[in-house]
Predict the 3D structure of the following.
Amino acid sequence: MIEKDFIPSAYQHQIEEGKVTWKSPSNIALVKYWGKKENQIPSNPSISFTLDACATTTIISCKKLAKAAATFSFDLFFEGKPKEDFKPKINTFFKRIEKYLPFLKNYHFTIETSNSFPHSSGIASSASGMSALALGLMSLEKQLNPAMDTSFFYKKASFLARLGSGSACRSIQGTIMQWGHHAATENSSDLFAIKPSYKVHSVFKNYHDTILLVDKGQKQVSSTVGHNLMHGHPFAEERFKQAHKNLLALKSVLEDGDLDSFIKIVESEALTLHAMMMTSMPYFILMKPNTLEIINKIWAFREASKTHICFTLDAGANVHILYPEQEKEEVYQFIKNELVAYCENGQYICDRIGLGAKQLINKVE
Ligand code: DP6
């Protein structure tokens, strides 16, 4: 599919008003997206576990305007309160997607959004937030074009979410999502995420992700700035090649359930991501001393316990601890006894691999 395929032809239906609610999860990348081209096109393919507990719920209400507005008309509420500082991001998002959702200027929107995870936990809400918003807008478009089929609905939701935040395109469905053109993956695309077509080994069912909140503060360098620093980065081309190789290797690992190889790929990807940050110009470090303490403790425990605990990182200091369902008691005891001490205010979130976003039925008022 190409961009043009997401531009709708004239709508068959009209609606005066509408209200839709979607709950969309966050995701954690195994092979990382780091570096992008114009129009939110990734420099390399990536793959992630969709999460379950960390999610954003977004209600979109819309009312038809008497005549199309010159600018986007919307109010935004975050956890029940007006949130002016989120508005420019939504406005940019609307501008980017207007071509694909031509009804946007015909309505006034009220967007009410809230997160399941604590505010300022250092957990990126852009993936869950942008995917929930994209799905809500797609539900409204579906009311204007009821003939739209389900597979196109999800593809376009992922396509739109990508234009809000790259990693958001991987949050629409579960349990494993791949985004970005990859020669060895049929139907892979830079424009939206897909579910890999192979059968994933049962060891990855109910895989756990316990997120240790090491530093809840605002990041010094945003992901967007970090992505841009991959332009002209001395190691960029090698890194992009490596992501293609890791994605291919991970395919057999996910099929065979080879956890030792899984650990090697996932931890190497996490450290490579941070190595890219440390070797860009300007260089920066997002890990904190406690991030490294935790990594060393995980390595020592893995050696001693022969479990398959491993870590990954996103663009921050928090540590995601991944482990299979079969080892959950032993690993969770270790986390509580030895790692929680390194978390800010002892905070952590127990999450696991999830099925993707869900539409919630609006309460009748
Ligand atoms: C490190 O998706 O937040 O989490 O497209 O600029 O919104 P934008 O970036 P974003 O980048 C996430 C990068 C990452 C790795 C990943 O999720 O693949």
